[in-house]
Specification:
The complex is a heterodimer of chains A (745) and B (76). Chain A is of the alpha/beta class and 745 residues long. Chain A contains 31 helices and twelve strands. Helix content of chain A is 60%, strand content 8%. The radius of gyration of chain A is 31 Å and the shape is elongated. Classes of the chains: A alpha/beta (745), B alpha+beta (76). The interface between A and B is large, with 46 and 34 residues.
Chain lengths: 745, 76
Amino acid sequence: MAIRVGSPGTRKKTVTVAICGNPNCGKTTIFNAITGLRQRVANYPGVTVEKTIGTFAVAEFDQYQFNLLDIPGTYSLAANSPDEYIAARALFGRIEGESRPDVVVCVIDATNLERSLYLAFQVMQTGASTVVALNMMDLLAQAGREIDLEKLSRELGGVPVIPVTASKGRGITELKRALADAVYPPPRPPMDFYDRRLIAETEALAACDGIVGYSTAELVRVLLDEHGPAERDFLAEYRESKSQALDTARRALRNAFGMLANAEAAMLTHRATEVAARVTKDHGRPTRSFTDRIDRAVLHPVGGLLILAILMILMFQSIFAWAAPLMNAVDELFQSLAGFVAPLMSDGPLQSLLIDGVIGGVGSVLVFLPQIVILFVFIAVIEDSGYMPRAAFLVDRAFGWCGLSGKSFIPMLSSFACAVPGIMATRTIEDRRQRLLTIIVAPLMSCSARLPVYTIMIAAFVPATKVLGLFNVQGLVLGSLYLLGIVTAVLVALVTRLFSRRQQHGSFLMEMPSYKMPTLKSVFIRVYTRAKSFVIRAGTVIFALTIVIWALSYYPHSDEIRDRFTVERAQIENRFSGMETNTSDKAAALTQLERDQAGAYLRDSYFGRFGRLLEPAFEPLGWDWKITMAALASFPAREVVISTLGTIYNLGSGDVEEASLLTDKMRRSNWETGPRAGTPVFSVAVALSIMVFFALCCQCGATLITIRQETNGLRYPIIVFIYMTSLAYGGAWAVYQITSRLVGL
Amino acid sequence: MTFLNKMIPGQRAKVIGFTQDSPLVRRLRELGIGPGKSVTCVCRAPLNDPLLIRIGASRLSLRRADASLVTVEIED
């Protein structure tokens, strides 16, 4: 019996359990079932592969504090993508700041035992204390098959095999208990799944001078994965001095196995076939499965595309139409908050900071929370149900034509909500070139932060007339802006392909999982985590930016201007004194004076001074300094534009709900100087030029930071920033010149 | 003997081997495509590419260019 050291305050031993498995094996469901909401998302150091860590406790094992580490899904420790390399390194204990896991739980899809055993063998070969979680036992029974658990455990050298049905929460308690037992596993004879010729060559390499700290399992990766990441890191560490030893060993392996690709795979697949055959009992009910029946419709060359199109339309409809009432509710909440706070404070910088800066700025961003939540519900359901790979399959040919892959579909789709998760989703693309290209074009998809700009400009300047008695011009313009992003992405991809030296084709290797009913819990956890990080972003980055912009457009707020307007105000009071009948004229005059005063402060602010300096550069786009500054201020985060426009057009606050007021202000705005002084700034042409600029421009610091992290360098963020900004300027210039000169709008 | 990319939907075949030694071939092996295994061509995506095949308990999709690395013997 275990000795208890469980009195409160006693230091517990921290046990790290890593959970690994093939993609779609139900690993994440098990992870969620074990830890619940006791999890946090972090990044692996150096790369932005998401690292989810949860904690859990096991009854009767309170001397342990368990950390559960979610390792990216992989078919093999031989890494083809950044995700897979992280998975391998985590198991080898090569992650900075992370010790080697004490226990590894290998999740196996019971309905696909033979294929799953491959990874299990590799994991056991690392020498880790392993527990096998045999998941989807319910589906196995439905398929009329049975696995002899004891026999399987014996075949695997005695490691515990725990039957689990994670989607129904079955077997989780037993699994936790087995994990605790596995911290100090009973002695077992070491398992050797590799051919002894492979072991011999690995040991010869290990015996080379100066190689320290590499386990046999790691050296197998260096040896077998030619041009792979393990080889790259190994050669970087030993400065090529061992490359000859590597070549010699590989030559020997090629001689022995025919090809390097066989050295490990032949052995492991053979063993997997044997083991699977020995432990599986088939009661033979060969019916056409549920998944096959759905696939007949969903993968149909015509019907399948139709289903995909309907699904996409439904998704966008829900984001734009169904989110509206929720967005109004959020907006009203912030309006009433501002209305509640304003009278409590005296006029001055602090009130302005709180109302215009904090409440207005953060509120205008949080308005998008409903859209983000709806989008992530959609994506979570599409992914969890198993439809996502089918969609990728259907569009692969079209995407492949411009150098992308069907796997780019998922990142591109996510980018319509936000490019940041979109770019992160490119990790599943193994081919480096396809992945980079996807990262480069993903920010062109019109994200949800661009929508308010479109909404305001269209509402204010595009007539709501119908064309052909069917289509609303406003809707058509909105649709064209989304199309503009997509078409530009295709063109950019085609041009990039034209200029790339290697014309080699990429691959599209993907497993189509069985369809599953998404569980409420799993969808909730995923949406909740995403929404949380969005809110945190609004509360930190955007919050800080809003305050900076507010300060730049508020200060210096000189006394000279105040004095000048105090004099004018006194003059108005004098003019109307004694004229009781003209109170409305007086009020109007005073309101106009207020506006002029605010305008004068703004023109004199640091923001205004800088804007007027830059005005000539943006004049060909039809912009005055106010639009210029609103656009420039939105470079760190384009969500800021609404609050900036609000501030600039000297509204009390820059809230979306006051958009109608903002549009009035914009319509009234005149050129202050230059040949067109006194004429209105805004026209259809200017509105179009602003929208095209926002559609094409990379006004998002978070996107650039994410690209930097995902590509490990400054090269790609710089490329993306330059090409998108140039396209935006060029596009806005072209659309302004064409519509104002040729069409005369 | 023919190649995996030449298979038409509904056809069954036995895998014979591979025409090159590469990380891609290693990955195909890891996914269960190995000599002696039985594959079924399930369908093709719009415009004929990629393919969906069934091997063992898995459904795999792969582009025809990659499928051309696998040699097969058509059964029945």
